Amino acid sequence: MFSPTIIIEAMINGLLTGAIYALVALGLTLVYGVLHIINFAHGATLAAAMFAVWGLNAAFGIDTYWTIPIVTPAFFVLGYVVQRFVIGPAAHGDDGSILLITLGISILIENALLAGFGSDTRSIPSDFSFAIVEAGPFLLSSARLVGAAGSLVVAILFWLLMSRTDTGKAIRAVAREKLGANLVGINVGHIYAITFGLGCAALAVAASLLMPTFYVNPRIGGAFVNIAFTVVVLGGMGSIPGAMAGGLIIGMVESLSGLLLGESLGQIGIFIIFILVLLLRPTGLFGAKA
């Protein structure tokens, strides 16, 4: 039987990891909330962002956290361009076509990463990755503390953007009623592209926060996107507060499952939560009925 100190420490570390899971899920739920489609390229885009962070560190020695002001605007522009000039025109307004296009983009990105970097696993060695903060009787990962703080800052910035800016009001208007927003002069195509770009930008920040403690290979995005889908379903499709709350819950469940069942079985708890939510509350914690 584990002592209360070990269990509480596992819960705290799970919450810190869950904050980054929430950031990964934030982009997914934002795109769904506005475009009403699931972006199947989400995981591959995260893998590309992690390789971008790794590449900047390997080529120029840039610290992972200092890559944030470089990769974030770059991936925002990339997401904007892909949505505005590839996904939008190719889909012709058909949501089914958008799903297939994002799936194709995912396959394209993954194979491009395999061709460019091979299937080897890469990481960024750093003393900070193993640094520990003593908080009373608890030992907490410094890198995870920074990651959780960064995720909180991004969530606050998203909230300010959505609630205090004209762009945020336009995004909310398009999400609620596309036709009405178009009638009052909002450029719906532009807002779609901005939303998609913001989702990619959130992934870029998440990649910079993840790399001190995680490895990267061309297929790493699949593992994170599975967790992100669970987070989004738990919190409620399209709900930004739900994504943040769901990420924290899933992180804690994963940590406790790993402690009680072993590291190799740690994600069983996540998928049990996923199934229970689908059975008992399909709209999630913060989701609204259609």
Automatic annotation (TrEMBL):
Compartments where found: Cell membrane
Q: Does the keyword Secreted apply?
A: no
Instruction: Locate the transmembrane regions by residue number.
Output: 6-33, 40-60, 66-86, 98-118, 138-162, 183-211, 223-251, 258-280
**InterPro entries (alphabetical):** ABC_transp_permease, BCAA_transport_permease
Any matching Pfam family: BPD_transp_2
The region annotated as signal peptide is none
Q: Does the keyword Cell membrane apply?
A: yes
Q: Which domain of life is it from?
A: Bacteria
For membrane topology, the record states: Multi-pass membrane protein
Principal cellular location given in the protein's record: membrane
What are the entry keywords? Amino-acid transport, Cell membrane, Membrane, Transmembrane, Transmembrane helix, Transport
Annotated coiled-coil positions are none
What's the family? Belongs to the binding-protein-dependent transport system permease family. LivHM subfamily.
| Official protein name in the record | Branched-chain amino acid ABC transporter permease
Q: Which organism is it from?
A: Neorhizobium phenanthreniclasticum
